Amino acid sequence: MVEVAGQVEVLSMLVDGKEIQAIDGRTILVENPARHGEAIARVPRATEADVDHAVRVAAAAFKTWRVAAPRDRGRMMMRIADAMEAAIEDIAHTIALETGNAIRTQARPEAKTTADIFRYFGGVATELKGEVVPISEDMLVYNRREPIGVVGGIIPWNAPVMLGALKIAMAITAGNTLVMKAAEDAPIAVLKMGQICSEILPPGVLNIITGYGEEAGAALAVHPLIGKLSFTGSTEVGKLVMHAAAERILPVSLELGGKSPAVVFPDSIDDKTVDGVIAGMRFTRQGQSCTAGSRLFLHESIYDSFLEKMMAKLSTLKIGDPMDETVDMGAIINRKQYDRVCSYITEGIEQQGARVLMGGLPPTDGPLADGFFVQPTIIADVGNDWRIAREEIFGPVVVAIPWSEEEEVIQMANDSHYGLAAYVWCKDLSKALRTAHAIESGWVQVNRGLGQVPGHSYGGFKMSGIGREFSLEGMLESFTQRKSVTVNLS
Ligand code: NAD
Q1: In what order do the strands lie in the sheet with 377-380?
Q2: Which residues contact 347 (CB under 8 A, 6 or more apart)?
Q3: Residues near ligand 1 with C-beta < 6 Å?
Q4: Burial bucket for residue 157 (CB in 10 Å: 0-12, 13-18, 19+)
Q5: I need a surface site. Which of 63, 161, 388, 481 has the fewest CB within 10 A?
């Protein structure tokens, strides 16, 4: 699988069932975010020519894959699920190493969820069915669900294997072939998953390329043989992908950013809610989650006491080496994100009226200075219209905002260009559901702060995206096209 260049392994891309390098031989260095200057491996730096090759291979494979029986495609997904399950420790280890996500709290659960994703889509493969439409006795009108063609998939680094598995399982189970570009910061575990899949899928059905967004990602988005674009990442890049899709009227799914509200009612000052808010903020993933409940709206009657409880719990989180089983929270992905998170914290420190209750700028010496570690940070008394309350920080930084009236908090929660996730914490279920229904987000959790489970449709409102993933409906909506056939029986 690897050659050795100096001390660092050079990994390969997966195209046509083969392990290949970039045509011009260039590579990208992947570094360990928890240890400054530690190189992990090199991966190929794909450019337009590599993308063209991969897409042509996928287009050729589509001719036979599109007519493979859904039952057989489903069986292959089940086999991939078993193989992924057997590889959980290796995959988890690799995720922790390249992303900085702690192995116990994040990397291993991500690897486990990935196996579940393949198993779920394998199980629903035969549900790719259409309908018969009762027009008249002498006409047979039916709808078929057909695959679209070659899907161009682009994924981010924050949950690389899970997000990659979603694209693979949905696109390929539905009968499409896929060229997927991994994120430049976290391509290694995705390549390992690709190898596992390639032992089970026919060559050319799944192709994984590595490279920079502006080079390989942009080339994939504009390739003329792509039939559908499926992008997960920032809203900024999502717009570029949508522009590329618009040029050719391509169907496009976008899973983008968020600045999700967590609304706590006065009856919810218990430990379970505090734990749920901390989980929902994804502190143990350093806040690097699109669904992080990063705008915390606390009722004024519990504002101070809730924050006290939250600080007490957050101060027990152990930050450090992602490979250490006792560590709760690892490192931020790279220098750019680290600097970005720090600049938002600085803004909070300097903002008049705001109070940094805990955390703040990271230490400049000691073990935490050896990697991109940022402590859990709470900035209180924030205005909902400030930049730190409007923009996605993508770090372990939560802003706390007090509220007094239900109508007011719903208005504040909805005053965002994002609409991905939301959390409502309230014991009175009718009030909780009234709030859940009034919030403009694609996914609202009531008294729960955990992640997605295969089977529920997931995706954003507003500038958080278009299309749904994670479910049968998501697969049908985003990865098939409907054809109507009318037959004259008279
Ligand atoms: P990003 O948008 O910078 O990069 C995502 C991917 O797009 C990477 O593979 C990158 O190489 C590629 N890319 C960059 N520029 C490109 C271009 N011009 N053309 C084509 N591809 C290009 O995002 P990121 O920093 O990797 O990830 C963080 C973002 O992803 C956050 O905004 C987060 O909210 C979002 N996200 C959303 C979801 C969701 O399901 N809604 C899930 C995870 C992450």
Answers
A1: 355-358, 377-380, 397-403, 295-299, 261-264, 421-425, 443-446
A2: 387, 388
A3: 154-158, 163, 181, 183-184, 212-214, 217-218, 221, 232-234, 237, 240-241, 255-258, 290, 392, 394, 420, 460, 465
A4: buried
A5: 63
What is the rounded distance in angstroms from the CA atom of residue 181 to the CA atom of residue 201?
18
Q: Does domain 261-453 have CATH number 3.40.309.10?
A: yes
Q: What is the pLDDT of residues 436-468, one digit of tens each?
A: 999 999 999 999 999 999 999 999 999 999 999
Whether 9-256+464-486 and 261-453 share one fold: the answer is no
Which residue is associated with the tokens 């037959």? Answer: 487
Out of 110, 184, 215, 290, the active site residue is 290
The band of 6, judged by pLDDT with boundaries at 50, 70 and 90, is low
The domain over range 9-256+464-486 is classified in CATH as 3.90.1150.10: no
Nearest-atom number in ligand 1 for the CA of 185 is: 26
Domain definitions of the chain by residue range: 9-256+464-486, 261-453
Q: What is the pLDDT of residues 322-352, one digit of tens each?
A: 999 999 999 999 999 999 999 999 999 999 9
Say if residue 108 is exposed, middle or buried (CB neighbours under 10 Å; 0-12, 13-18, 19+): buried
- Annotation says 342 is catalytic: no
Which among 72, 85, 76 is positioned nearest to 114, based on CA atoms? Answer: 85
